[in-house]
Amino acid sequence: MGAVAESRPSTESRSKWQELVRNVRRYWYCYLMMSGTFALLLAFAYYPAFSAFYHSFTNWDGFRQPDWVGIRNYQEVFTSEEIFGKGFRNMFILAAWQIFRSSVFPLLGAALLYRVKSEKTAYFFRLLFVLPIVIPGLVGILVWRQLYDPNVGLFNEILVGLGLTRLAWLNSPDTALFSLIFMGFPWIDGVGLLIYLAGFLAIPLEIIEAAIMDGAGTVRRFFSMELPLIIPQIRLIVILNVIGSFQNFGWQLLVTRGGPAGSTTVPAWSMYKAAMNEGRYGVASAIGVVLFILIFALTLINQAAIRSDIEYEAH
Amino acid sequence: MSMFSMSRRDLLKALGLTAVGVVAAACTPSATPTTAPAGEEPVETAAPAEEVAETITIQHWAQAAEPTAPDVELEPGEVRKVAYDEVAEAYMADHPNVKIEWYRFPAGSNIDEWLTARMTAQDAPEIYWANSESLWPHIQKNWALAFDSWAELPNPYVSGNERWFDQFEDVAVISQTGPDGKLYGINMDGAGVLTLYNTDAFETAGITDLPTTWTEFIGACDALLDAGFIPYGATLAEGMTFSHWLHAHIYNQLVWDTIYDWDKDGNMVITAKDLVLSFEEGLFPDWDAFLQFAHLFKELTPYFPLGYEGELDLPQLWRQGNLAMYMEGNWGVSQLKNDPPPHGFNWLAFPVITKDIWPAAPEKVVRIQGAWGAMQYHVPGYLAQTDPARVDVIMDWLMWSSVPEHVGSICKETGLVPLTKGAEGLPELAPFYEPYDRAVPYQSWNTMSASAWNAECNLWQQYLPSDMTDDAFLELAEETFSAEVDKVLEANPDWVTE
To answer: For the segment B373-431, what is each residue's pLDDT rounded down to a tens digit?
Structure first.
């Protein structure tokens, strides 16, 4: 696969084209059936993206004709303390944490589950970890908000019971970001766990048995064999969480509204506010474009950086 | 024998063609009447309500005045609201070709997002609610139809009425006046804000005389704090009304004599445009008064609940008996009646700032009492081009709705405060009818824009818990406010060139 393709004669290119045309003619009904999906994809995925790129250079309230303003919106994004200063800083902190927590804790959970010998026990624990998926995330967020309530929340009641001072948690600039990070404890995401578990289960048993016969212990096997073999799953989880964490503003919308004093604001929240609350779609589009470029770049880096020499195809 | 003689390939071809046909049919736009481009003024028509042969359905989002939906299960103690239904049924009995439907606003939806979607699609309800502070951005987008032609007509349903809008209190009419001087809606009720207090807590704290001045109020807060209560509810999260209301109550007292200097067009309404023009002339804000407001705000912070910098559920805290006082609007009365808290309660006016605190203080009682009620109704601007005959019917229905007896019945049921002359409200709202010296014509930076409101909340979140010096605070406040003015001018460059 690493060999450089030699240049081919032009007759081979023409035959490839002819083959394509022949296939389209033969299976026209398949392409016709797919055309609806592509049309919807163009209309609802690609068109809005290109529209956002265009409108990022305009002053637009979402309703009237946009006015071209050049790079003014981008200037505002990169000079704004709220969007660039606090927003990007918080976003990178939350994203780094999100990547860490989605990579480590479900992985540990999957690794433990993989080692459970009894099938019934394994099934029971797998169900236990996965069941919370069916609960809407919103419910979880609201429950945590109640736990964090500074005046009547459970956490402060525990602190008072231990003789400590109450904290404002989400309501103080000093503790709000940490409180957001702590939400979701013990951070074992059911979907991530299943993806990792599938990776572990795809490892050929012969390799594991051979390693055991050679005297490799549990920890050695995990780091030297199992981890490299589930690199594709890790890469997938990291990519999904990079994209998700950069785009996510659910906590801000439901819990903190980016405050207090901008301590939990992220660019995606500023984008939402600019569009929906302030009617400044041009600025919102500019933030969206910047986030897109950032996510795209990080995805490419992720693809290049996280790889293993040993990758088996699933059976 | 198989019913289908088609091969699998033929069947797939047929399915493919059918699927494409369905998608194509769904995506084909229906014929739409021509409409004026956004930004152009709609053409007003003032024809009297004509009988139209076919049934006209009017969707009306009545907001808090709406009757309870028939399929809703009531909470314990909750009373089914029927007053507006009765008003509508009487109207429909006299106008068999008109059907009034209650538009139920989607729960949890954001009004701005909803309006943008509905106005873009031109399928908004024929009558919708919007707060008067949103007026000028809506007018710019042709979301609100001008009412002037109909406002001058007599209301045929009110005996002796010669001009429809003479039925309403001045503040109701003023609130619906746009920057161009035209009327863009109707306002049948208003909203008032007072301080709701726990009478049991006051008794426990030994407070026998209600505080009327700022100094007395601080004294009462001290007594409540000593008695183990959280004296005063506050929450500074963006979108929460606390700082907005406090700004209105305190700052208006400090700038009493100069506030109407900001009224550049002289219509007794302080609009976003007035504020921007006043800022350009250096008249607004009065930074000395704003600094004094900041000091008074900070003086209150020891009496706020823990975590006041963020979002708190003040009604919950108050009902639990932890919180002694918090600002609430008259709309809370219905719930208090239906589901009384486990302690006594009453209403308290905001304390008066005395001259020893601010020498220029007029020592007058201000009240947030204005036209921010549930019965603020607007009509989509595009209807003037797309369906002018329907507009006449809509106005006729609104004239019927605004009959004082009808407004009174709705207000008594819902706890709203009528701004329609001759309409009576709930006796429990008597504190809201008590005399005061001035209803605040300006509330906070929110008057300028939603973004400015968020910026002001952010400013207080930074200042109040900190040791920021006065100079640092003023520098931050001026920088913040100036940036917000720039945003408003960006959307309205013609304001400063007129």
So the answer is: 889 999 999 999 999 999 999 999 999 999 999 999 999 988 888 989 999 988 888 88
- Cβ contact B239–A278 (<8 Å): no
Average pLDDT, chain B: 87
What are the chain B neighbours of A29 within 8 Å (beta carbons)? 9, 12-13, 15-17
Cβ-based contacts of A61 with chain B (< 8 Å): 137, 140-141, 491
Q: Among B94-103, B154-163, B223-232, B368-377, which stretch is predicted with the lowest mean pLDDT?
A: B368-377
- Sort out which chain B residues have CB atoms less than 8 A from A262's CB and list them: 458, 461
A171 contacts B312? CB cut-off 8 A: yes
Q: What pLDDT score was predicted for residue B396?
A: 97
Residue A2 within a domain: no
Query: Does residue B3 surpass a pLDDT of 80?
Result: no
CB contact under 8 A, A259 and B237: yes
How many domains does chain A divide into?
Answer: 1
> From the CA of B94, how many Å to the nearest CA of chain A?
39
Give chain B's domains with CATH numbers. Answer: 56-190+372-431 (3.40.190.10), 195-370+436-496 (3.40.190.10)
Q: Which structural domain range is residue A271 located in?
A: 74-305
Mutate to test the interface with B, among A35, A257, A269 (most CBs of B within 10 A): A257
Q: What is the 3-state secondary structure (H, E, C) of chain B?
A: CCCCCCCHHHHHHHHHHHHHHHHHHHHCCCCCCCCCCCCCCCCCCCCCCCCCCCCEEEEECCHHHCCCCCCCCCCCCCCCCCHHHHHHHHHHHHCCCEEEEECCCCCCCCHHHHHHHHHHHCCCCCEEECCHHHHHHHHHCCCCCCCHHHHCCCCCCCCCCCCHHHHECHHHHHHCECCCCCECCEECEEEEEEEEEEHHHHHHCCCCCCCCEHHHHHHHHHHHHHCCCEEECCCCCCCCCHHHHHHHHHHHHHCCCCHHHHCCCCCCCCCHHHHHHHHHCCCCCCHHHHHHHHHHHHHHHHHCCCCCCCCCCHHHHHHCCCEEEEEEECCHHHHHHHCCCCCCEEEECCCECCCCCCCCCCCCCEEEEECCCCCEEECCCCHHHHCHHHHHHHHHHHHHHCCHHHHHHHHHHHCCEECECCCCCCHHHHHHHCCCCEECCCCCHHHCCHHHHHHHHHHHHHHCCCCCCHHHHHHHHHHHHHHHHHHHHHHCHHHHCC
Residue B407: its pLDDT value, please? 96
pLDDT band for position B169 (cuts 50, 70, 90): confident
**CATH, residue A144:** 1.10.3720.10
Mean pLDDT of B12-27: 72
Q: Residue B20: closest CA among chain A residues belongs to which residue?
A: A36
CB-based contact (8 Å) between A250 and chain B?
Answer: no
Cα nearest neighbour of B456 on chain A = A261
Q: Give ipTM to 2 decimals.
A: 0.79
Q: Residue B113: closest CA among chain A residues belongs to which residue?
A: A276
pTM: 0.79
